[in-house]
Q: What sequence folds into this?
């Protein structure tokens, strides 16, 4: 079972398959098993898959220091996994907060990234984060399962139990620290213009107000940006409804990430 240790934090990842490399990065909750349970790894047969449990999640270490959850730490962890696996260049697939990590890696380390796919809405370029403090307080007070149940209750179709269980398995403090650290940073809109790799934003139409328009605006800031809007879907649905998310993802990778590396 591969681990890579960087700056005193041990990060777990799995390495399976052969072909062009795709690194999968989960969001603020959950671990690498999400991708297998949802069916992404099966849909990506023919690729070499690097499946991360990022810091604070799954089998990786859970650093308690707030500075250990800055975006730069998550970005450097991805590079450390690629280095440890002997991979010079990979496609990146991220969900939710993991999509933000993928965009940041592609922006800051362009030579290491051949293609990017992010699942989840990108938000407005001038999004107001005034309610972040209250959200963080609720997570710390009520716990991760209560937070995930609130997410699920906002959607018209209840997610499968395995997804709620996987998301709720993340320590609430790790989720809170991630949100807290990232709220003080510029965010993905600062990374979008510097992304040179072909990039696909996959978003549910109903993840947020104007989700499709925001995704299109983000794609227009990139030299090679594109969007796949999933009609009627919300944030969790955009991940676990692989009957809807995987076809545009597989098509995108077949067009932009079939070169052997």
A:
């Amino acid at each position: 079972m591969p681990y890579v240790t960087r700056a005193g934090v041990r990060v777990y990842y799995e390495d399976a398959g052969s072909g062009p490399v795709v690194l999968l990065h989960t969001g603020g909750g959950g671990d690498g098993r999400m991708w297998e349970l949802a069916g992404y790894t099966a849909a990506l047969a023919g690729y070499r898959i690097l499946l991360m449990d990022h810091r604070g999640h799954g089998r990786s270490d859970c650093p308690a220091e707030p500075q250990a959850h800055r975006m730069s730490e998550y970005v450097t962890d991805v590079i450390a996994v690629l280095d440890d696996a002997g991979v010079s260049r990979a496609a990146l697939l991220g969900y939710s907060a993991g999509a933000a990590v993928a965009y940041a890696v592609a922006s800051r380390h362009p030579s290491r990234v051949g293609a990017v796919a992010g699942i989840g809405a990108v938000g407005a370029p001038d999004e107001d984060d005034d309610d972040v403090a209250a959200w963080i307080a609720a997570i710390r007070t009520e716990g991760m399962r209560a937070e995930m149940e609130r997410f699920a209750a906002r959607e018209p179709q209840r997610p499968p139990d395995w997804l709620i269980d996987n998301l709720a398995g993340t320590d609430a403090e790790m989720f809170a620290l991630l949100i807290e650290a990232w709220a003080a940073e510029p965010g993905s809109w600062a990374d979008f213009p510097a992304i040179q790799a072909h990039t696909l934003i996959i978003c549910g139409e109903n993840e947020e107000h104007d989700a499709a328009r925001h995704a299109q605006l983000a794609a227009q800031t990139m030299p090679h940006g594109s969007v796949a809007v999933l009609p009627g879907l919300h944030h969790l649905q955009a991940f676990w409804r692989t009957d809807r998310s995987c076809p545009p993802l597989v098509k995108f990778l077949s067009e932009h990430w079939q070169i052997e590396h």
